[in-house]
Amino acid sequence: MSKKNYQEQVQNSPYAKNAREIGQRLYSLRREKNLSAGELVAQIESIQRDGDKQVKLSKTQYSRFENGTAFMNSEIMLALCDFYHIPADFLLYGKETLDYNVRYLTKNKETLIVAFESLAKYLRNIQ
């Protein structure tokens, strides 16, 4: 399939709006970490090399996900969820499930600290 045909397929898909919303969440998550798209991809690749998982992701491909002009496969989605420490529910729908958060947070001390820092940041913003 040509690039033009793929772009038309994405734009005409009933899920085009969802792709744009997912892209906005990806963009926000990346900006929270103060990373460029290239830095993010490099970090994901370095994590992938250390583990058993091997997911191919390019800067251009990631940018297309953020722009909502491409759909990602489940492997990439799971790698991004692992990298950002978020459940797929959040990436897909903008919602988090409490069960996932509790199980994930209790895995290690670092993630618990990040969660409390995020909660404190959120609470400061709602005042």
Highlighted features:
globular, 434 Repressor (Amino-terminal Domain), 2 domains, 127 residues, mainly alpha
Topology:
Elements lengths: L2 H10 L3 H17 L4 H14 L8 H9 L6 H11 L3 H6 L4 H8 L3 H17 L2
Helix pairs in contact: 2-4, 3-4
Describe this structure in words.
Helix 2 crosses helix 4 and helix 3 crosses helix 4. The chain has 127 residues and is mostly helical. The protein folds into two domains: 84 residues, 434 Repressor (Amino-terminal Domain) (Orthogonal Bundle); 31 residues, no CATH class. The chain has eight helices and no strands. This is HTH cro/C1-type domain-containing protein. Pfam families: HTH_19. It comes from Enterocloster alcoholdehydrogenati.
For the secondary structure, the number of strands is 0
What is the overall number of helices? Answer: 8
Into which percent range does the helicity of residues fall? over 70%
Radius of gyration: 16 Å
Question: What about the largest sheet?
Answer: none
Q: What is the mean predicted local confidence, pLDDT?
A: 81
**Tell me, what is the CATH class of the largest domain?**
Mainly Alpha
Q: What is the ordering of alpha helices and beta strands?
A: HHHHHHHH
Strand content: under 5%
Report the end-to-end length measured between terminal Cα atoms: 51 Å
Low-confidence stretches: none
| Coarse shape | globular
Number of domains: 2
